[in-house]
Amino acid sequence: MFGVPVGPLGFVINNNKENVMLNRKNLNLALSFLAVMFVATVASAQEATHAAATEGLAGNVKMALAIAAGIGMSIASVGGALGQGKAIAAALEGIARNPGAQPKVFIPMLVGLALVESLVILAFVVCSGLAGKI
C-alpha cells in the first residue's frame, strides 16, 4: 500500500471501478457499524418505570399516542402488503418468462418476503409499545 493515497476510514483514493466498489462497501460497512452502535447506545439507556413514564401524560397526549399507533400500524400493513405483492408479481413474471430459472428465483423471493414481513412485525412492536404507554 506504499505510495497509494488513503482517505478517511481507510478508503483508497483511486478512480478505477474496482476501488470505487470497494470504497462503497467500506462506506456501507462503516455506516452500518455506526448505526448499530447508535441503536445499541439508545437501547441500553436506562428506562423509567411504567408508572413514572405514564403518570404525567395528559389526556390529549394519550389520545395522540393511540392515533399514532393506529396510523403507524395501518401504514406499515399497507406498505408491507404492497411490497410483498410487487415482489411476488415480479418473481412470477420472471418465472413465466424463463421457467428454468424457477429454483434461482423462488428462494430469494421467499427471503425478500420474509424481510418485508419482518419490517411489518417491527412496526407492530413499535406501535404496541406506543399503545402500551396509554
Describe this structure in words.
The relative contact order is 0.09. This protein has 134 residues and is mostly helical. It has 2 domains: 1-45; 50-134, F1F0 ATP synthase subunit C (F1FO ATP Synthase, Up-down Bundle). The radius of gyration is 23 Å and the shape is flat. The longest helix has 39 residues, at 59-97. It is built from 4 helices and no strands. Helix 3 (59-97) packs antiparallel against helix 4 (102-132).
* Strand content bin: under 5%
Residue windows where pLDDT falls under 50 for at least 5 positions? none
Query: What CATH architecture label of the largest domain applies?
Result: Up-down Bundle
Backbone structural class = mainly alpha
Question: How do the helices and strands line up, and which of them pair or pack?
Answer:
Blueprint: H1 17-43, H2 50-54, H3 59-97, H4 102-132
Helix pairs in contact: 3-4
Q: What is this entry, summarized?
A:
With 134 residues, this protein is mostly helical. It has 2 domains: 1-45; 50-134, F1F0 ATP synthase subunit C (F1FO ATP Synthase). Helices cover 76% and strands 0% of the residues.
Which features characterize this protein?
single chain; 134 residues; mainly alpha; F1FO ATP Synthase; flat
